[in-house]
Design goal:
The protein is an alpha/beta fold. It has 13 helices and 16 strands. The protein has a ten-stranded mixed β-sheet, with helices on both faces. It has a four-stranded antiparallel β-sheet with strand order 11-12-13-16, with helices on one face. Strands 14-15 form a two-stranded antiparallel sheet. Helix 6 packs parallel to helix 7. The N and C termini lie far apart (60 Å).
Length: 536
Amino acid sequence: MTTFKQFRLFYKTFLSLFVISIGLLGGILGKRLEELPAKPNVIFLLADDMGYGDLWSYGNPTQEWNAIDELAKDGIMFTDIYSPDTVCTPSRASILTGRLAVRTGVHSATQDLRTFSPVLRTGLPHYEYTIAEMMKDAGYTTGMVGKWHLGTNRNNSDDGYYLPGNQGFDYVGHMLPMGNLWVCDNSGVHMTSGPYAGACYLYYNTTVIQQPFEHENLTQKLLADTKEFIHDNAAGPFFFLLSFIHTHLPLFASTEFEGKSANGRYGDNINEMGWAVGEIVQQLKDLNIDRNTLVIFASDNGPQTEMCEEAGQTGLFSGGKGMYYEGGLRIPLIMSWPGIIPAGQRSQESASLMDILPTLTDIVGGHLPTDRPYDGASLVDMVFNNGPTPHEYIFIHNGAYLQFVRAGNLKVFYNMSDLYDRDYLTSSCFDGVPHSQNTYIPDYRAMDPLVIYDIGKDPHEYFLLASEHYEDILMELSRATEAHMSTIEDSDPLLDLGEMSCDVIPCCNPPDCFCNYDKPFLEVDCDPSTFADLTG
């Protein structure tokens, strides 16, 4: 045996023993489901438009280490996870239901809109079964704060028909039904004619308390609600969704974080979010419930990369929000459960955020309705045993259109768009700051022949593979795709402008519709073009 081979054998043996010893110190690998503690608390931390490459632990060289990275160090981080879609509304609908948006109706037949708008009388249907409803039926107290973007009103300006309290959440604190939009900028950095009262409002439960809302101390409000809920429900079990406003544009940060990050204004946002995560983790320790609480951190989709120096990072992946290249869908996922999930774990298995619902169902002993198909699958074996993915194939749709299928490391496009170029990315930048929304609108078209990439060897999606070399695989994939598409039933598209009504726009102080400004720069109107340009 050569010296090099001897060294390599020694190194591999040492590394294996080191990993095993770390596992024994931090938790136990190889747990069966019945060996897990019953009814753990669950906190789901969901970022908005944060990229795969935005965290130090996911390879960002200039972003400061924060409490989110500590979660990754203390638990398991996943490196091949897809968001269900590339924009907020369909992605969040799928995360909460474990089902593709085409099944729930959260799509548009005409591609008028890709997210819920203030003028739509539609929202996530009540017959869909959410994570919160599953947890509640399993004996949990449920709560949420932050971004919703799954519908607001159905018949008038304040019925709140689609708000979280009607989707399984017992407690709802400060909440943005629409989220943080470009037209909500009140800093003057991006807009001198905003904010827009027709789309920018802060609720507390079902009541509008700011219209337009103010960014100042917004993260602090969400954190205070979260900590109050945890304190009041420390005896458990509880499920809480903290849906951050960061890092969706327009960026904002409190004075404690503003101008402090080497990564600029975007880094300030990451650090403020990380601070809030750290406050929550410390509270769990102070209440002595950290070892009975599973904490999950993820992002709803990729970053809006056309936003100059205020754009998130996709790491080495191409594309971004709104696109079905890896940069639009590949997101961080971290889980931490001290004493149960060993520290320092890393999984390279492919999965989807639609898997969160069935995974939590298994962990808490819940049940899902059997009258509908699910696209998610339980990740219990991946999380606790470092096991393989439960998916042979992962199907990703843009509404009714099948965009691509992941089969192992192969990514096969059925529909795709061109990738924007550098000139487009910089076209609205001045001194690094975006001065128009400049949202890239991809032009999708069917692929014939199918476009194939090996994501393992070519994560950039640069090099096409010759389909004639993969005929057997493509034949198997064709059968699997046909079987998958046969389970897609027609659903009424909920994002078509035909469902528009001015009567459902929230209004805190009729007829003026503003309640914390002397007068907003942009008053409420009902011009469809105003709402068609909004992106979530």
